Amino acid sequence: MNRYTNLLSATAIVAASSASATDLEVMHWWTSGGEAAAVQQFADAFNATGNTWVDAAIAGGEAARAVMVSRLTGGDPMGAFQFNHGRQAEELIEAGLLRDITDIAEAEGWVDLVNPSTLLDACTVDGRIYCAPVNIHSWQWLWVSHKAFEDAGVAVPGNWAEFVAASDALAAADKIPLAMGQQGWQQSGAFNVMMASLLPSSVFTSVYGDKDTDVAGGADVATVFAAAASAREMAADSTVQNWNDATNLVIQGQAGGQIMGDWAQGEFAVAGSVAGEDYSCLPGLGTNPRLSTGGDAFYFPVLDDEAESAAQAELAALLLKPATQVSFNLAKGSLPVRGDIDLSAANDCMQKGLQLLADGALLPDVNMLATPDTVNQINTLFVEFFADTSISAEDAQARFVDIIKNAD
Asked: What is the pTM (predicted TM-score) of this model?
């Protein structure tokens, strides 16, 4: 038993004796194999307090968020729910539907522990804290199947340019060059990875942070739309819907690679694949290694039931405890939000992420800079772009500029 397990056990004993144990419904969208293994770490830790985690998983982030908001605004709140770091909960906070957990954050010392501090800033409205950040997820990864490239007789690429150059050889070997699910968030996510990885960081922040339409319509961003057109061609035979099904194509050696966030590591882990042997992971597409500081946070609706409110407080505190952070993030493939815990057991890919975090090679996540409405418009654009090859890169960029022009 290590010191983190000891700490978790002690916390559980104190918590269980401090309040009446109760059931707490927790809503989230973690339904893939790797995600389910990770969320079980939270459930097990919470159940150890004497309370009961009542799992209410809904597949798909967009569908889950719609149900969560409907429940909250309809007067049927759950005990806790997952959202991404960013601006998704602003209206719910303004409506007074979410619990202020500043007292818990202060008691647990989150201000001194959460790294980078922007994650806690994203939970803060008018100086009050409304959510518990639980991880750092970064989108900027290219996952590469060693088997696919070996079968195609070409070297495993070390960057995006080499990956694109090998696409014809992959296709000739009956491999899908680029695995991609047919959902807007995956396609716009790939585009944003290219924005962050193929250009200087200043371009990304000018477009999404400053809403600079001159930059959005300029030559630099035009090169990213050209790269997106190449990705569209390479992904033409990728007909799966879900991101984890696309990841499985890479795991099985049926596809050369996938642009996807570091949550893909959970799927490789469940499949028994070994980083550096069965697959490679290229942060920043191997071109400009950097990470966005997106991820997940838990919010807690205002409840009338005292026992459930007490259980909320126990869960909120538990989510950032060292043992919970270690077990959850090792399973999820994400990085911890605490800067003071030991992750020596992390695999090669997570170690790369930890080094980039330590080096400060970071970007804000799009969800922190843009409203859900703007994000949805961008998603819609890329659904149409990837489905319809008659939409040129130039036409797509013009529509993108209009979205940025009207973004708030």
From this structure: 0.81
